[in-house]
């Protein structure tokens, strides 16, 4: 029998939390509910979780602050944000603080389930891979979000680390932009493409310390990490 996915649901809206808990429990999830970000943070410190689903707007500690605190403490559990916010800047901020996916309210429960299972599967796959990679003179640690060269360490954002991890797993190969977006953003729309381009620009600056390392743009297709 397949093990249940252990989910922490941080949701202030009581009715929604109870509906999600009941439905997800029936669909193979082991659910615990936190009513605000502070309570959720304490539960993460006490137990290990396969996936965290967090509302953005919560009392005492909002979802973005909760995610930022988790990443600072070294927690790599995938986080999916539930939000009524629709501005591109809000989505970008969510990824910056360590979120792995976004689902806008209202949403279909089946979509939530599919996205959560995908995050859990991706996280398990990444943990079976090497803990660090050599990129030219750099040492890249995806789990720590660090890029080190000559004893100098740069702390990457969670999204920068995820994009670089995708590229380094396909080093010297052309990676389609759409493939990166579908894996990391869950949607390859135009706005997410613009966001990806921003992260690529940031990664190029981080990698500027070694002239032999380059992220090459393949016009109309994607990118190639050259080492």
Low-pLDDT segments: none
Total beta strand runs: 12
Strand content: 15-25%
Helix content: 40-55%
Rounded to an integer in angstroms, the radius of gyration calculated over CA atoms is 18 Å
What strand order characterises the main sheet? 2-1-3-4-5
**Individual helix count:** 8
- From the N-terminal CA to the C-terminal CA, the straight-line distance is 44 Å
Order of helices and strands: EHEHEHEHEHEEEEHEHHEE
The count of domains is 2
Biggest beta sheet attributes? 5 strands, parallel
CATH superfamily of the largest domain: Response regulator
Q: What is the global morphology?
A: globular
| Average pLDDT rating | 88
CATH class of the largest domain: Alpha Beta
CATH architecture of the largest domain: 3-Layer(aba) Sandwich
Here the CATH topology of the largest domain equals Rossmann fold
What structural class do helix, strand and pairing data support? alpha/beta
Features:
2 domains, alpha/beta, Rossmann fold, single chain, 5-stranded parallel β-sheet, Arc Repressor Mutant, subunit A, 24% strand
Structure notes:
The chain is α/β, with parallel strands linked by helices and 227 residues long. The chain folds into 2 domains: 123 residues, Rossmann fold (3-Layer(aba) Sandwich), CATH 3.40.50.2300; 94 residues, Arc Repressor Mutant, subunit A, CATH 1.10.10.10. The protein contains 8 helices and 12 strands. The chain has a 5-stranded parallel sheet with strand order 2-1-3-4-5, with helices on both faces. Strands 6-7-8-9 form a 4-stranded antiparallel sheet, covered by helices on one side. The model has no long low-confidence stretch (mean pLDDT 88).
